Amino acid sequence: MADGYLEKHHDDYEARKAAWLRKKRHLPKTGQRQIERPENESL
Fold first, then answer.
1. How far is the CA of 39 from the CAs of 34, 42, 43, in angstroms?
2. Rounded to two decimals, what is the model's pTM?
3. Conformational region of residue 10, where left means phi above 0, alpha means psi within -120 to 50, and beta covers everything else
């Protein structure tokens, strides 16, 4: 194998991980949805 093979793949992994974490941080958090209950409970 070429010299630095593992180091290159580790660097690529770290770059992908950093990009994923940046994207994850900017996503809106989803709250729990309120279930709409019908006015007539007999349904």
1. 15, 9, 9
2. 0.52
3. alpha
- Tell me how far apart the alpha carbons of residues 43 and 38 are, in angstroms, rounded to a whole number: 8
CA distance 20 to 38: 41
* Residue 7 buriedness (CB in 10 A; 0-12 / 13-18 / 19+): exposed
Cα dist from 21 to 3, 25, 28, 30, whole Å: 29, 6, 13, 17
pLDDT in tens, 30-41: 777 777 877 876
